[in-house]
Amino acid sequence: MPKKSDPKNIIAIVPQPTSPEPAQVRAELHQQILNAAPLIVSKNIEKAQEGSYLHAKFLFEFAGLQAVLPDHAADEEESLAEILLRELESGAPHPAPAPA
Q: What is the pTM of this model?
């Protein structure tokens, strides 16, 4: 007569899940983000309209509408840094410009 198996002596063999390929993970994440994008942008717009600077900044940058800084090279007025550097290099102070 065969012996009954004692449940304490049974070793369970559980197959190990295989790791997904990184390219597959990226593709799935990309699709999830694309699907969520309209809602994400809509919520960012709501927050920006409520006055959130960071949300507004993100939206402007995302849309390619960053502020363009003026070109200081075209300015004819000497900067404070240039004046101080000139004074340090020459060793003698220059007279102040006459008031206009």
A: 0.47
